[in-house]
Structures are given as structure tokens and as C-alpha cells.
Amino acid sequence: MTQEKLAPATAPAVTETPRAWTRRHLLDVDDFAPAELEAVMQTADAMKEVLGRDVPRVPALRGKTIVTLFYEASTRTRASFELAGKALGADVINISAGGSSVEKGESLIDTVRTLQAVGAGVLVMRHWAAGAPYLVARHLQTAVINAGDGAHAHPTQALLDLYTIRNHLGDVQGRRVVIVGDIEHSRVARSNIWSLSAMGAEVIICAPATLVPEGMRPAGPHGGRSNGDSSQAHALPPVKVETNLDRALENAEVVMTLRLQKERMQAGLLPSLREYATLYQLNEERMSRARTGALVMHPGPMNEGIEISPGLANSLQSVIEEQVTNGVAVRMAVLYLIVRGAKP
Ligand code: CP
């Protein structure tokens, strides 16, 4: 195991790489042990301390080059990876597929090999195709971090969500977390289900039956599981499924709502945005069913007035901006662990 001793004046308060970390890539959190999640959380605490300094920079990754390669739009993820890399002293290059040689027909593999050839030590990539980062990781020596692949996974979002919840509630073991919205098409929901379940949270998903992943769809003509039965989805840990938001919110300590993509209506999965908002919008009145002070979360970007009311999004219960802020410390932790962590 690599042990990193860094000069105290310039280093994060991490004096050795957590023993639990042995990964070369971060592709998903679906196989993370609690100790690995804990390693990210503790490293993120150290990075938060760095970000609180007058000069929020350390040379931990000086001489390294991080390339962000995005085939889909992003504000939060890309900006926070860039800030994270720079705060650790790395050089950061941002590439969007639009405007790159992808537009001239260059393949994904040729593109990433080119970036490796110019010296990328870490490739942070977002792609519309589920599995694309796995394919890339098989072809490169460069470390790969998945910044979102299709509807499959968004591991750093799940890590920053876990970090935000822990900062408010401490241990997440036994905490009731409701994830409401388009679960079927949400990489955020999938990664959160994995990480929160691994840490012992009680996860409840809530959506219209048409937006629940097939293996989790509730039984019965009305699609309700009001008896609290759990349903194990294919390739996801067991979670409770509830199609009625008011029931789902009872005793919730954390409520995470997801962006509703308007394409879902065109695909015939929803009758109208108005009906969705009536049945599934998170608002102040609905949140009164949850525990007092329950956290309101959203990965962003939000459709205020559809999946969340503007009042709730901007209320004292909302930690939505804090999620974004924590994204920098958590992504610093991930970059640090990937580059400096022990590898088998
Ligand atoms: N949550 C999230 O991934 O946001 P961006 O699409 O802005 O990166």
C-alpha cells in the first residue's frame, strides 16, 4: 500500500491513503464495500478543510494532467471536477464532444487514446451510452472516472449525496431515504440505491409505475405496495417501492427528488406534466408528512414547478446548493484516491 506523507503546510490532512482504497478506476459504486465509501468520506473531510483555507490549494497532484471529456451537457459535474483538479495542483483540460474531432467522425476509442497519448493521467468522462466508461477503461492505462453514463451510473453524484447526508445526520444506518421521480431513466437513482443500501439506509423509491425499473415494478392493477413489501430489482439491491408519494414520505428523514425529463411524456410514459406535478411534486405541504427537518435533495438541474416547488427548493430544509458545494471536496477525494491510492 502506498503511504503518502505530504508537507503539512501544503497538504490536506490526509497523511496516508486509506487502506480500503485499491481501485484504479471509478466506474460505479455498485460493488463498493462500506469501508471504501468510508474512505471517500474521510478523504473528503480532509479536502473540505483544504477548501476552507485562505488559499485553497495543495500540490498533491502537481504534475498530473486531468482531462474531462463530456459527450453530454453538464454544469455541476464538469465545473466541480475542474475546480477539484486545480485545487490539488493538477493541470486540467476540458473537452466537449461538440467542437472536438468527434464531430469529424473520430471514434470514442481513438479519442481517448489520443488523450492518453498527450499525457492524460486521469480521464473524467460523461457519455450518453451506458457502459462507455467501462469500454474505455479496458483500452487505456489512464485512470477512468465515470461522470455519468446513460441511465446506468453517476458514482460521484452518489458519493457527494452520501457525504451531504452524513454531514447532517451522521451515520446513515437505518435512516429512511426516499428517492422520488423517474427512477427508470436515472443514473443518479441507481448509484444512490447502491451506496445508500451499502451503508445500511432504508431506501424507498417512489414513482409512477411506468417510471419504476422493470424488475422493481409493483404488483397489482393499481401498482401500489402500501404494505411495505420489498421488491428486489434485477441487479439492484432490494428497496421498497411505493407509487403513492404521500405514503412514501411518512417518517422520511431524507427526500431526494429527480429531474423529470420532458421526453418521457413524448414516449407515452406520462399523460402530462401537470398530472405528474399534481401527484409527484415535492412541495411544502407534502413534506409535512416527512420527519420534521427532513433533508430535501436534488442532484440538479431542477425543473422548479414540476418535480419540486420553488418554495421548497429554496427553503431551509433544502440542501441542494450544499450538494453542489460538497461535489468539489468529494471529487477532490476521488481524484486523490485514484492517483495516490494503493493499487493491488
Ligand atoms: N447532477 C449533475 O450531474 O449535474 P450536471 O449535469 O450539471 O453535471
Description:
This protein has helices at 34-51, 76-87, 108-117, 132-139, 155-169, 187-198, 245-249, 263-266, 273-280, 284-287, 310-313, 320-340; strands at residues 65-70, 91-96, 122-127, 143-149, 176-180, 202-206, 230-231, 239-242, 254-257, 295-297. It has 344 residues and is of the alpha/beta class. The protein folds into two domains: 34-153 and 325-341, 3-Layer(aba) Sandwich (Rossmann fold); 155-321, Rossmann fold (3-Layer(aba) Sandwich). The strands form two sheets. Strands 7-8-6-5-9-10 form a six-stranded mixed sheet. The chain has a four-stranded parallel sheet with strand order 2-1-3-4, sandwiched between helices. Helix 5 (155-169) crosses helix 6 (187-198) and helix 5 packs across helix 12 (320-340). It is globular. Residues 1-10 and 221-234 have low confidence and may be disordered. The structure holds phosphoric acid mono(formamide)ester (CP). Residues 74-77, 148, 157, 299-301 line the site of phosphoric acid mono(formamide)ester.
Question: What is the fold's blueprint, element by element?
Answer:
Elements: H1 34-51, E1 65-70, H2 76-87, E2 91-96, H3 108-117, E3 122-127, H4 132-139, E4 143-149, H5 155-169, E5 176-180, H6 187-198, E6 202-206, E7 230-231, E8 239-242, H7 245-249, E9 254-257, H8 263-266, H9 273-280, H10 284-287, E10 295-297, H11 310-313, H12 320-340
Parallel strand pairs: 1-2, 1-3, 3-4, 5-6, 5-9, 6-8, 9-10
Antiparallel strand pairs: 7-8
Phosphoric acid mono(formamide)ester binds next to helix 2.
